[in-house]
Amino acid sequence: MIDWVHPGFVLIIGSLLIPFIPKGKVKQGYLLLLPLLAFIIIILMPEGTYGIISFMGEKVTFGRVDKLAKCFAFIFALMLFIGMVFGLRQKEDGHHIAGFFYAGSAIGAVFAGDFLSFLCFWEIMAFSSVYMVSFSKTKRSYKAAYRYILVHATGAVILMAGIHLYYFEYHTLAFNLMEFSGLPAALILLGFAINAGFPMLGGWLPDAYPESTVPGGVFMATFTTQTAVYALVRGFAGTEILIWIGAIMALYSVIYATVESDIRKLFSYHLLSQTGYMVAGIGIGTSLAVDGAVALGFTNVLYMGLLFMASGSVIYVTGKRNLKDTGNLYHKMPLTLIFFMIGGLALSGAPLLAGFASKPMILSAAAAEHLAIPWILLMITAAGTFLSTTLKVPYLVFFGKDKNKNPDVPKQKPPRNMMVGMTLAAIACIVVGVWPQGLYRLLPNGGNYHPYSISHVVWTVQLMLFTWFGFYLLLKMIKVQHVINLDFDWFYRKGGKLFLEVVAKMIVTPADTVLSTIYIPLIIKPGKWIANDCFSFDRRIVDGIVNGIAGFVIGMSGALSRFQTGILKDYGFALIIGIIIFLNILFFVIIR
Questions:
Q1: Which of 339, 368, 314 has its CA nearest to residue 426?
Q2: Confidence at 409, pLDDT banded by 50, 70, 90
Q3: Which of 189, 215, 280, 448 could potentially form a cystine with 246 if both were Cys, beta carbons 3.0 to 4.6 Å apart?
Q4: What is the largest CA-CA distance in the chain?
């Protein structure tokens, strides 16, 4: 009897049937059915340990079901359903299959109870997510996908090395809370850090995410970084260095977001900034801080997904993704404007929206531990987030001057499925903001927190009003240009290219010269001599024998054809002579 069904396998195996499903409403229904089934399984799944198999003497656990794993799996399945609604018009079956593999492997990773199964799902997630980028089928997307998979393959090698060393030192593959000491833990943390997008390691995210397909961007904003956040909570909660890394990461990324003009790259930096909040909460390590990090991961999926959907909707309709090329869209896309504002306000932590239910938990935890500098850095980040997402982007996209008069804007609206997807995400943001206790029940430590205190509400409103006033004063100074903002990925991009050039000049070229000098006289010339001799032998000897036999057969055939007179008595006479010869041979040779 089957007592447990893995929701990740439901998505992965179920996606393989997509090419065989008839197109149209049937296929669309199937695309929505799979995440709905996974979502129901996760909700009904009792806590416990399931799916244990033995591999080379080690226990591999595919189903460690606890509140932490269920919380992340819950939001992954929910956002997969919303994202599928949003992307129903995506025609390629391969895109949908990659999306289900991506989501299924993320869910598999959060339920993994050991490093071996976790690493397997981690790798499936990396290789399936790259298709979200390459399916854009542009030169830029192919290059970004290539860089993306190189970075993640490097991170996977580092993580695998850490796991090997961890096993040799502790003789276990169980994935539990670790002490940050020694090389194994450092390598494992570095492997997680690459996927989480730590400072100097996260340049791949704003490089690849903007090049993804419109629905693919929603999935990428959901799974990769949040799975890394889960791994950090599981393995490194309370690691003090993460407090400082997270605070710096949040501020560093929001600065880049503030000066960015590419709308999808801008939101990619905000995704990194919000991940910085979570990393800081994980580093603080108290029950409130960890619950805050998990809650922020949950809500971040909702409002970042909504913002990626809203920006994707603008790109779908206008074909533009740079703030300099948009403007005056409020009368053409009023509902999209509303979704932008809901997502931006939720991201900024406005009351009655999802961000207010989660972000203050981390700030309160930092204040409770008297971490003044990280608290200040996070508060500055909050002001920058509101300035960028809720003020700058909506103003430039929907109310700014339309310098190009948008001659290329099609006279169309976003498809109904896009509007439904954004509506579902917006409703979820509002529900979580109005009823945060529903979210807190899912958190690993119970989420004993009350966000709607007078001090929290007043402080948040004051911060937003102050930021708005500054934006209003400096409004005429805001200028948007087509620029490329260099990030730390410039160093490994150019460094990698320089390394290859150095290797080519210092190693490959000299080695090629040496080998050519040896190869030509010792291999090429003797090879030509042998080939010529073999050719002569074949032409003179082999062909001579074959041609001689053929000539003999032809001659004999001509001679024998003379005996074919066509007279019956001649054939009868020849038959009698043959029988006599045969009988003599039989008698004298065989019988005697």
A1: 339
A2: low
A3: 280
A4: 129
In order of 167, 258, 387, the CA distances from 474 in angstroms are 57, 14, 11
- How is residue 459 written in tokens? 């402080």
Residue type, 155: G
Average pLDDT of the segment spanning 88-100? 92
Is residue 331 pLDDT above 90, yes or no?
Answer: no
- Reading the block at residue 587, the tokens are 């008698």
Q: Tell me the average pLDDT across 9-23.
A: 94
pTM: 0.84
Tokens of 101: 């593999």
The rounded distance, in Å, linking the Cα atoms of 197 and 212 is 17
Let me know if 427 is exposed, middle or buried by CB neighbors in 10 A (0-12, 13-18, 19+): middle
Contact indicator for 212, 136 with CB cutoff of 8 Å: yes
Beta bridge pairs of residue 262: 322
d(CA 151, CA 292) in angstroms, rounded, equals 29
Output the six-digit token pair for 94: 């391969």
Q: Per mean pLDDT, which range of 68-72, 509-513, 567-571 is the poorest?
A: 567-571
Q: Which string of DSSP letters, residue by residue, matches 504-569?
A: IIIIIHHHHHHHHHHHIIIIIHHHHHHHHHHHHHIIIIIHHHHHHHHHHHHHHHHHHHTT----HH
SS3 491: helix
